[in-house]
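Board notes, transcribed. Complex of a protein with 2-deoxy-2-amino glucitol-6-phosphate.
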Amino acid sequence: MCGIVGYVGNQQVVDVVIEGLRKLEYRGYDSAGIAVINRDGEMQVRRAEGKLRNLENVLAKNPIEGDYGLGHTRWATHGRPTEENAHPHRSSDGRICVVHNGIIENYLELKRELQKHDHRFQSETDTEVVAHLIENHLRQNPNLGLEGAFRETLKQIRGIYALVALSADEPNKLVAARLGPPVVIGLGEGESFVASDIPALLEHTRNMFFLNDGEMAVLTRDGVKVENAKGEAVTPQVQRITWDPIQAEKGGFKHFMLKEIYEQPRAVRDTTQNRVSLDTGRVYLDEVNIPAAYFRSFSDIKIAACGTAWHAALVGKYLIEELARVPVEVDYASEFRYRNPLLTPSTLMMVISQSGETADTLAALREAKEKACRSLAICNVQGAMMTREADGTIYTHAGPEIGVASTKAFTSQMVAAYLFALYLAQERNTLTQDQLKWHVRHLSELPVKMEKLLNNPEIDYEDLSKHFVLSSDFLYLGRGINFPIALEGALKLKEISYIHAEGYAAGEMKHGPNALIDSRLPVVVINTLDSDDEKSKLRYEKTLSNIQEVRARDGIVVAIVTEGDQDTRDMASFTIEVPPSSELLSPVLSTIPMQLLAYHIAVRRGCDVDQPRNLAKSVTVE
Ligand code: AGP
């Protein structure tokens, strides 16, 4: 997923753009470039393959200056990751340049048409077509100006895009448009910013808004004008982003992912606070702005999500059905949107998303809204598309999650789902006040338990990882509410260490996976125990049997257990203890060893933990 930064104002644009692109490196890229108009009105472009430091080396040898311009980190889709294909791309006369995130599906036909009118192309990319289209409109009608030519160009392209363009002939002006991938606009004093994500702008301004699909913006030193697809002026909903810029930095950790794993207690605390009363057990979700009466009456819930967020949705199903007794169906968003789902106006549609921009999840939300469902999002990014299209949002307050592998957002999503389940139980009277107080108390104790687990000196994940650095396959097993954590543990390992891993319901071992067991196969088994919970005890005993089956076939067992569990320890090859907790909150704790084991194995294997190959932080294309 590409990174975009544009600036117009009084600062040195090169500094603003390069620092902004650095904050977007987590998005993954393979080349970078910058275009600046100097005070003589000359377009200066510098581009380089590979990492941002290569572009900085080019700039050091051949500096440029100016106070408006734009930059880009490219994740190659059309055309190899070469300097020629790096953005920004220019028009034939070199007076217009463009950066782009997305895909222009009809670029070839447009390119052929332009080539008939002596447009010369320098790259294999779809993006370059946009610069030539703007130029072509200006050739035919110079009175259009950049704004008008850009508006006409948007009518010609099909696909999805976050686009930013400028012209050397119209000083101190940028134009931007969005259809799909996010575009965030930052407002400063005598300066304006545009980027593909919030962290790029945080050190300059907290006043930001996301463009909506179909909208176009014109940025100048005096501010930003926004219009919708019909050309009507739009007043944007400016958000005050409360994220601390430091949170978007590594803060002394080797990787963003490790920092974010250790930020989880704070993320859970911030997601919980001001939403519960320890005294009364009441849960407050006023910010959701859907009438409480609705929550007392709707019939069922559908949850759509992708990847890790889908695992959070599976945990949410257990929580909501257990606490509020409301039927919940969970779907991959990419499946939901194409299976003609059975939705009625009394169905509550939920989406869970860290970014709030995932294309499949957005499409699932829109599908449900077309069928008159009320909708609720659990999201981590203020003002993201999903939060503006859903009827209500429960924000996770995990702060910016930079690592591609989701960690603190995931545990915060599970806590948000827990809060929602308790809220439903409260409104539908499926729990007594004492029961609510019990759950709220356990929830408020969770961050301390997470900190204790994260800082347990007896668990040496780095040492443990040396046993598995050459493994080619892993199996993760869990039962009940920890089955989704087995899935999540497998996803964490495969996406950052590139080791194949599979999560499975422990009870399914006899139905096939037992055939996999041998002395080379590590099997991670979650077998925590809430000794006050009869169902937990039963689940624990059954899982203990699964561990015996694995050990009987010389399988290697890494067991995640509750502190003091000697029985499982006696059977396992390796044991990681987590603090005691209620059954329903155990997934938040059992997730942490999964994250750290995957992290240390990936580091030992020399993988790019924060930017794993082939992955993007937010999948804004199908
Ligand atoms: C999680 O580790 C992955 N990076 C990925 O599966 C992610 O959870 C998925 O793409 C959904 O993203 P979202 O939460 O921003 O919608």
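The radius of gyration is 26 Å. The chain has a mean pLDDT of 94.
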